[in-house]
Automatic annotation (TrEMBL):
Name of this protein: Magnesium-transporting ATPase, P-type 1
Species annotation: Blautia hansenii DSM 20583
Location of the Cation-transporting P-type ATPase N-terminal domain: 13-86
Record's keyword annotation contains Nucleotide-binding: yes
Class of enzymatic activity (EC top level): translocase
PANTHER family: CALCIUM-TRANSPORTING ATPASE
Principal subcellular localisation of the protein: membrane
């Protein structure tokens, strides 16, 4: 049975049981669990956390670090080499160096990955501390607050508006409980939940069961209490979260596919090398060992390590700038993001808004409007958003404290229909001291207006004029244009009713308006300019009025030539929308669903879309975007849905994030492209050399040594500098550029390899071995000397050029002069070149089949290096002109 079905049957059955039966089944009582029971339950069902996965033992971590396709292949090659070079070899030729080098490569890259894993875990823990809130439980008959992770199956838990449901729960008591399940179903609809025991109906999806509440969903309004049925990874939400986010990302998939291309490439070419060598030389065992080393040398075994190191390094750098990257892959999306959609209040504007005016329908100050709004805000149990906070703040106005306290005792709450972002208004029913009930509504002007049939002016109720909308906007229009948020307040007498339904929300009387000062953050306009400079197009997606959106856009510098409203959006086909979404930068009066539609239209157009939002209404869009960004002041559920959380108030960190993301991306591409092209060049040279030489162009150990040096260089590549020009525009990944890069630069290294071959074979070796070429030699020791000289020559040339190519291709500028690599890269390059060159002069050289070369060979090498640089520069120049970018 699949995990989902297992889950369904285990949890679902409780929806059809009465609470006492559930208590009996789970062994708990209405008083809650005792301490012993909590321990027993935790023992049995596990902890309520994702970090400490039950399976995440040291062994598991070791497994993830050490077992990947590259290591498996390396391991097999190591074993083969052990068998052929050690067990099957005669005493005289026995040599375990090859196998040792191969195994040490596995150990090095595995250890680095393990370190990265442990580091990533500590960032995840940091996030946990920031986001995980306390939950209220009833244990041993008393209420207490505990951290969410300590919750166990069987606990009785209480929650209210604004909370995230901390586990999967069967509700036992509710008061106007409305929940958004966007986090698990992606739907923006807000569902009413109940606690009644359901009758069994077949085929009902579990998320539709109204007496169950699921982990990670958000309580939009009301309160609830229930019994915990599942915790941690056993929850419905836990079933969704992938244990390893690694395979989810498009880039990761792309990178893996490159690895496979290289492996396939190797699988074809290595046997060719083996056959050519075997047929021409006749030494099959030696040819086999050589082909094996070529295979190891060509394998991009450092690829997974470089990618995780780049991502981890980027996210660490962002952490220092008070930005938490929850998912490592978000780092890369940050870099390739080319559209950033933002909502307005709290992200682009200050997190708190201020109540500025309260007025009647003609715009005169009127405290009754404020009183009504105050009652509405105090009594609705939904998530308090900035509007409510601003209204409730009026109770601290000097001299008004008593008035508002009296108001609350005079009017008692009877019922409510909570706020939701599709309806855009909230209704509360209050009863005055004489027993009369009043329905008070506040919310979006257009939505309220459409439910009003009358207006109230100076205590008189008058029928609404025909062009009411027009006259309302002539009163509030100016405020909207000044960037003020305006909402309407309406009321109705409903006799002595104690309950309301949406049917009652009509024939209302418009009483007046409230307007709020919603100023853009000081840094908003700066950040928008910075984003534009980085070629990220900013767009505003707001639920607020068009006029205020336009005003904010004007102030922060977003082009507001075209504007689309939610209603216009609904009339459009997907095709029309895809076209318009490109040229429009301001979208207003949107519902949460429309925000999602816009994000997905942009994604379909090929953009990498970021979404910055802070409210419950932004959660679906945060989920839909390639990179969801939230701020510290956002509701918990939004922070949870986001991939990135900005802890700082100003938006400038966004720019830093984009830059850091692009840096990360560039360093990854650098590794992939340079490795691919130098491997391509090498294999080409090896095939040429194998066909033409009567001996091996390099011994297996020498190839592996070179590989080791190159790999070590790659370990520090994530810390390399990146040219500023490289990060000015979004980095996109496409496999096409890899091929053209390989084909342009690979052959250059082969060209110099071949020049070196000819020089060594026809000039240097004969000059030092009696004036003739290899084939004319008869003395076996001279023959050996000839081969060793050749091999050392090529070993040095290969090493020099491979390291040089890295310095050359890492930048589009002139290396060393205009753009310098970071200190670690420069020092490893230098140390590597010096150490390996010096090695050929020591007595240990013979161990690797190397020998001393005359100093004048180094003059030749310098010459080769010089022309190599020259040719690369010229090619780079043409390449850049043709394709506009290098890496
Ligand atoms: N607490 C509330 N009470 C009544 N009406 C509200 C409340 N909150 C929001 N509204 C109404 O719903 C509309 C949309 O809400 P809001 O402005 O928060 O949406 P948004 O998409 O988050 O936009 P932004 O955050 O960019 O302003 C508001 O313009 C307002 O008219
Ligand atoms: Mg908002």
């Amino acid at each position: 049975m699949s995990k989902a079905t297992l889950f369904d049957s285990r949890i679902k059955k409780y929806a059809y049981c009465k609470p006492p039966e559930i208590c009996r089944d789970l062994g708990t009582s209405a008083l809650g669990l005792s301490k012993e029971q909590v321990d027993a339950m935790r023992e049995r069902y596990g902890k309520n956390s994702f970090q400490e996965r039950k399976t995440d033992t040291t062994i598991q971590r070791l497994r993830r670090a050490f077992i990947n396709p590259f290591h498996v292949i390396l391991f097999i090659l190591g074993i083969v080499s052990l068998v052929t070079d050690v067990f099957m070899a005669s005493n005289f030729t026995r040599n375990a160096t090859t196998a040792l080098i191969i195994f040490s490569m596995i150990v090095i890259s595995g250890i680095i990955r393990l370190i990265q894993e442990l580091r990533a875990k500590s960032t995840a823990a940091q996030l946990d501390r920031l986001i995980h809130e306390k939950v209220t439980v009833r244990r041993n008959g008393e209420l207490r607050e505990i951290p969410g992770e300590e919750l166990v199956v069987g606990d009785l838990v209480l929650f209210s508006a604004g909370d995230r449901v901390p586990a999967d729960i069967r509700l036992t008591k509710v008061t106007d409980l409305f929940i958004s399940q966007a986090a698990i179903t992606g739907e923006s609809a807000i569902l009413e939940k109940s606690c009644r025991t359901l009758c069994y109906k077949e085929q009902e999806p579990i998320t539709q069961l109204e007496n169950l509440a699921f982990m990670a969903t958000t309580v939009i309004s009301g309160k609830g209490e229930g019994i915990v049925l599942a915790v941690g990874t056993d929850t419905l939400y836990g079933g969704f979260t992938k244990p390893d986010s690694e395979d989810k990302n498009a880039f990761q998939k792309g990178a893996n596919s490159i690895a496979w291309v290289m492996i396939r490439f190797m699988a074809v070419l290595v046997p060719i090398v083996f056959l050519i060598l075997g047929i021409t030389g006749g030494k099959w065992l030696e040819s086999f060992a050589f082909a094996l080393s070529v295979a190891v040398g060509l394998m991009p075994e450092m690829l997974p390590m470089v990618i995780t190191a780049c991502l981890a390094k980027g996210s660490l750098a962002m952490g220092k700038k008070q930005t938490i990257i929850k998912d490592l892959n978000a780092m890369q999306s940050f870099g390739s993001m080319d559209v950033l959609c933002m909502d307005k209040t709290g992200t682009l504007t200050n997190e708190s808004i201020l109540l500025e005016y309260y007025m009647d329908i003609l715009g005169n100050e009127n405290t009754e409007v404020l009183d009504l709004a105050y009652l509405n805000s105090s009594y609705h149990s939904g998530v308090r958003n900035p509007i409510d906070n601003a209204i409730l703040a009026c109770k601290s106005m000097p001299g008004r404290e008593i008035h508002y306290a009296k108001l609350l005792t005079e009017y008692q709450k009877e019922d409510e229909i909570p706020f939701d972002y599709t309806r855009k208004f909230v209704s509360t029913l209050v009863q005055d001291s004489t027993g009369n009930s009043h329905l008070i509504m506040k919310g979006d002007i257009a939505h309220i207006l459409s439910r009003c049939s009358h207006v109230e002016y100076r205590g008189t109720r008058l029928p609404m004029e025909k062009d009411a909308r027009q006259s309302v906007f002539s009163v509030v229009g100016e405020m909207l244009q000044d960037g003020m948020k305006v909402i309407a307040v309406a009321r109705k007498h409903v006799g002595t009713r104690r309950e309301i339904t949406p049917d009652d929300e009509k024939d209302m009387t418009l009483v007046g308006y409230l307007s709020f000062f919603d100023a853009p953050k000081q840094t908003a306009s700066e950040s928008v300019t910075a984003l534009k400079r980085l070629k990220v197009i900013p767009k505003i997606l707001t639920g607020d009025q068009a006029a205020i959106a336009l005003s904010v856009c004007r102030r922060v510098g977003i082009s507001a030539e075209h504007i689309l409203t939610g209603t216009q959006l609904d009339e459009m086909t997907d095709c029309e929308l895809k076209k318009l979404v490109e040229e429009t930068h301001v979208f207003a009066e949107l519902t949460p669903g429309q925000k999602v539609r816009l994000v997905s239209a942009l994604k379909e157009n090929g953009h990498t879309v970021g979404f910055l939002g802070d409210g419950v209404n932004d959660i679906p869009a945060l989920n839909e975007a390639n990179v969801g960004i939230s701020v510290d002041t956002a509701v918990d559920a939004a922070k949870d849905a986001a991939d990135v959380v900005l802890l700082q108030k100003d938006l400038n960190v966004l720019e830093q994030g984009v830059l850091e993301g692009r840096k990360t991306f560039t360093n990854m591409l650098k590794y992939i492209k340079i490795t691919a092209s130098s491997n391509f060049g090498n294999i080409f040279s090896i095939i040429c050399a194998s066909a033409f030489l009567p001996f091996l162009p390099m011994t297996s150990i020498q190839i592996l040594l070179l590989n080791l040096l190159y790999d070590t260089l790659c370990i520090v590549l994530p810390w390399d500098n990146v040219d500023e020009e490289e990060i000015l525009s979004p980095r996109d990944w496409s496999g096409k550029t890899l091929k053209q890069f390989m084909l342009s630069f690979g052959p250059i290294s082969s060209l110099f390899d071949i020049v070196t071959f000819l020089f060594l074979y026809y000039f240097l070796c004969p000059a030092l071995c009696g004036g003739t070429t290899y084939l004319q030699l008869t003395d076996p020791s001279l023959k050996l000397q000839y081969a060793a000289l050749f091999q050392t020559g090529w070993f040095l040339e290969s090493m020099w050029t491979q390291v040089l190519i890295l310095h050359f291709l890492r930048t589009a500028k002139i290396p060393f002069l205009q753009s310098r690599a970071s200190a670690p890269v420069v020092s490893i390059t230098l140390v590597g070149i010096l150490a390996f060159t010096a090695l050929t002069f020591t007595s240990g050289a013979s161990l690797f089949g190397l020998t001393k070369l005359p100093l004048w060979y180094f003059a030749f090498l310098l010459l080769v290096a010089f022309f190599y640089m020259l040719l690369s520069s010229v090619t780079k120049y043409f390449y850049k002109n043709k394709y506009q970018e290098l890496i």
